[in-house]
């Protein structure tokens, strides 16, 4: 009892009403399959020894096992979808504590050594469990993300640890002291000894300065006579013991780690109660080390592994070569008389008669057209343009088909033209950044900031209204036309750089009617702010949803987005863009995909009143947002059909070697017949009769293989204003990438997809995820329904895939996966750098993972599990964690650039990459440049066991980077043919498109490469491309001109 009272002196506050939870596996996804195999090796095992020294507990592939110290058959203690790691035996030996996400979030968890139901404590506890000496208290050895440090009583309740204590290593056996790992303000690292009864701490031991930042898992022996730790030097671990009496240092064990993860707390080890033994896992084995003598015995074990998994969410799709129905519809709004609709699609302006007319082109021009706006009389449409050569302007076009009239005089990047009420002026945003004598068109997340101009419609004279505005926001004139309402980022009277809604009299006076919060300065969070002309409402876009705020009439500025959640806003459209006020503010319109909506804003407000009543009744509601469900007054379908660019000719490619990717099938002298963009025949030449009228190309001595599929191709596509052509897209096609997947773009990426499909831009066939679904504040997933809306919106745009990007909890990741399964979409995941998150993705049943994790050690157990899971792993060896990037290995090619490279890559890009390679070689040497092979070899091991490894270049070195990736995968141990399969048939499977892409078979789409040399002889011959065929159209690789024999 005295010891327990002393423990309470350690703490400064008790939690109110805290109770532990008794849980089984309550994750949203349920078990639907089990992978079973036997193993005598384990990867990244955390280990502890029982107090009586007779048993060892260890984690293996996310479950816990117990084995005798004499070795033998290991007993599996946990099952289910949860990832359970870092087990620690209780002082009495009857319980084991560990970290588990069985409740959907990482928590301290306790289970009896006989198994059964577990107890969970805390939230987001990601360290290593630490037991109080008597075994009735438990803590993590590190603070949670909120910076708090709690100890939990097994009987219920918790207490907060004093802030004087940093990272606990362990308690002393008599409960008088706590040993803590501490870094001084001066940088020295030491162990502090905290006296629980007196509440004071003193330095117990100070480490020397050598590699103190690489020390891990520091522990003080129970008898206090020595301490131990791990030290990581590059890829080598040492287990070090320091005698605290003689101050001598010894290395007890040393091992090589393929891809270390220094931040994961890997290689957790246990110390026996008598301070004589250390048990640790490394090299795939369990080791029992006698500390006095250094004798190292292996504890041999056999584990019959049972890994429970969710259903593999692996959907398949069929590629459509018929006319495309445009889904990327922007800036749709009705004419003042309500009879016509104007909108932007495919970088052109269209109009249609309401309600269901056929869209027609407003005016044909050799420039891209965006962001239309009706004149007040409905006779004209103003819009912005972009030309890669002459840049952007503002134009107006009438309804009679006459040539458009240029309004602005100076070229630039213009956004969101708005007519004055009398039709004499146009207010428009203009970007202000220039690079290399060219205006900056914008980035993936938006066009940035610029100036607000007012321009005379007749004379084009312009003057500046505001120096800094977010170019995504919209300005509006008041009903009387005597003032302008716009968004500014600066206000001298208030200060700061938050967004402000300014009312500016067309005389001189201005005032602030609303203000934002700091996060509002990032254009992704709050965009497209627009006030109703009658000043009753503000509408804005946040997280791809539309929100409405009644504008206060108190004389004080309203808050656009209240981070303190004191002023709830009304979220009325889950999925919506381009809000527009019509009829002077009586109608609010917006669009999403190819749907256009209208609603009376009063309907939204009335729905909000009902939502408030539900809140009063105690229903669970997000305190920051009032979600309302409304049926728009009008829903219009925009049916714009445009032909896809597909060959309509009959082509015969004869006498070539054909690498089919049908298993190992290679036809040494074969012929392909292509009709209407699809393969009709793939056979030996002497088995094929070429029809009359076919275009025949003799390819004797050439090699044909399927077009490359790059599954992780960051194309960095600009938002809002699109270029006419983009060199990165052209370089991709020129280097043989006929299909690319953009794993983290924006909503605008769907627009590029449609432009390429219809032949208006040159590039690979493109598949987009839209925006990757990141955690708060980007997207908020608080329940399954939130995930459903995110997924369904992407499905509405035609996506086949969703990208989950580091959602904080397992529960949110699983909700998103369940929503994908319901919608028939696949989901791929940004890898969690550590193996805990990686194992979670595997066990959940996701179809894909992007990037290799920090593998730590990887042995047969990991190879077998990943292979058996069916999950596609895209390593991206050119963007690796923990090693060099593979792109550095091959950047030497930029120092001897050929014609194709110089044709597509800007000179400054070539010079930069060449210089970077030379610097890395001189400073680091080729040994470092090849450290990515530690990743590549693991990928080859997984492939050898039937695993699905796929190629993704990460968009590094557009086009040519895909070849670098193939070469890097081959260097890890794949055969040349296996390396090619990662970029063809396996990549097609990851897309769910293996019925149409990835191999040369009758019925599949005619995407292929014609090579001068055989890549089966030398993998680097993949780059020797003469021609590329996409959709049956043959391009010259050096120029992308359509080949005509």
TrEMBL record:
The highest taxon in the source lineage is Bacteria
Entry's Pfam families? Amidohydro_1, PD40
Q: Which SUPFAM superfamilies match?
A: Composite domain of metallo-dependent hydrolases (SSF51338), DPP6 N-terminal domain-like (SSF82171), Metallo-dependent hydrolases (SSF51556), Tricorn protease N-terminal domain (SSF69304)
Q: Which InterPro entries match?
A: 6-blade_b-propeller_TolB-like (IPR011042), Amidohydro-rel (IPR006680), Metal-dep_hydrolase_composite (IPR011059), Metal_Hydrolase (IPR032466), Metallo-dep_Hydrolase (IPR051781), WD40 (IPR011659)
Show where the Amidohydrolase-related domain sits: 703-1032
What does the record give under GO molecular function? hydrolase activity, acting on carbon-nitrogen (but not peptide) bonds
Protein name listed in UniProt: Amidohydrolase-related domain-containing protein
